[in-house]
Amino acid sequence: MTAQTEAAQAPDLLYSEAEEDLRSAVRSLLAGRADAPAVIAGIESDTPYDLRLWESLAAGIGAAGLLVPEKLGGQGATHREAAVVLEELGRSVAPAPYLTSAVVATEILLALGAGDGPVAGLLAELAAGRKVAVLALPFSTPPADGAAAMTGTLERTVTGVAEAEAADVLLVPTADGLYAVETGGDGVAVQALVPLDLTRPLATVTLSGAAGTLLADAGPAAAAVSKGLLAGAGLLASEQLGLAEWCLTETVRHTRERHQFNRPVGSFQSLKHRMAQLWLEVVSARAAARNAADALATGSPDAPLAVAVAQAYCSGVAVNAAEECVQLHGGIGMTWEHPAHLYLKRAKADSIAYGTAGRHREALAGLVELPAP
Q1: How far apart are CA 154 and CA 152, in angstroms?
Q2: Residue 179: which of 200, 202, 158 has the closest Cα?
Q3: Could you give the CA distance from residue 152 to residue 189 in angstroms, rounded to a whole number?
Q4: Phi (first) and psi of residue 299, to 5 degrees
Q5: Chain centre distance of CA 52
Q6: Residues forming beta bridges with residue 156, ordered by sequence position
Q7: Contact at 8 Å (CB) between 237 and 289?
Q8: How far apart, in whole angstroms, are the C-alpha atoms of residue 20 and residue 17?
Q9: Maximal C-alpha separation, the chain
């Protein structure tokens, strides 16, 4: 293999100018609409989702349609751009059904490959931000279990469905195929649960006599669901990266300003070592998350490997960063008014979403061929 061929196959981990422009737009929006006081006020209310924020993010910026081709009403971008949006959403822990609708549900519909009909119509609605769709499976379902989800009937109860309360449409996998079910229709009940992470609500979905539109038969549907879960796991790493970066930045800022014994606490060597170690972990997490996003964007055959690596590593980094943030803030980090607890809860909840780190390490072991002794 020549050096030119190796360079052509190397993943691009850097951010393009367009991606940085997108980041700037999303960060500016979230700073004005989803700062810490706004997020805390939202989770204390009956409606954690700010519909105006979602409208601005989905339709105003066009983030909801990043993965959708232009001919179907989307932006025609890639997973790299969607990853940038998720980094910023992780940085602000804003309640928004972006991962579940604009990534997982959208990826499933795209994988069905329909150029017209109900699939294309639903994709156009999602891309425009007029509707939100979620997959009616537990948020903890790992990518490898996509085919196993194609069982049962449309009559079912599913617990732990992320952001089902915000959904207009449920994508329901059954033994017959994948159905689209309107949440406002008869026979559909969505019962809110009390999750650890209040910024990403969970619910129990009960379907009893509900009518659904068949989008695909079981075979194509199973492949599409697996692809959607893979994209969700891969881009979840970008959300975890944004979360960890905020925790590191905020902790460094606080330890510079907080004084003890007439000096900044950040100048104590023991804390310097802890923050330096955290910085190294965050930098490594960025490489893993960007590699997964690039592999998904380019359709690389190594995408499952890249996703498994990213999730096996980024989950632990996000949890560690959030724990360090709470602890190194001292007493204020334990209060409800300080947002540190939001990041710890999101990190903990994300660590079991779309498969635990342990499940991804198991998948990684199966994907890597070890040399013969």
Answers
A1: 7
A2: 158
A3: 18
A4: 65, 30
A5: 20
A6: 207
A7: yes
A8: 5
A9: 70
H or E segment to which residue 367 belongs:
helix 357-367
pLDDT computed for residue 152 by the predictor: 82
Rounded to whole angstroms, the Cα distance separating 111 from 299 reads 12
Among candidates 99, 355, 363, which has minimal Cα distance to 236? 99
Both tokens of 59, joined, read: 């339709």
Report in angstroms the alpha-carbon separations of 345 from 12, 30, 45, 89, 163: 31, 19, 18, 15, 16
Per DSSP bridges, beta strands 133-135 and 169-173 are parallel
- Dihedral angle of Cα 69, 74, 75, 76, to the nearest 10 degrees: -10
Average pLDDT, the chain: 92
CA 42, CA 254: separation in Å to the nearest integer?
Answer: 25
Identity of residue 311: Q
d(CA 53, CA 59): 10
pTM of the predicted protein model: 0.94
Annotate 61-90 with DSSP letters as a single string: S-GGGTTS-GGGTS----HHHHHHHHHHHH
d(CA 183, CA 120): 19
Name the residue with tokens 């993965």. 67
Residue whose token pair is 């000096």: 263
Lowest mean pLDDT among 63-72, 149-158, 309-318: 149-158
**If we measure between CA atoms, which residue out of 76, 57, 111 comes closest to residue 221?**
111
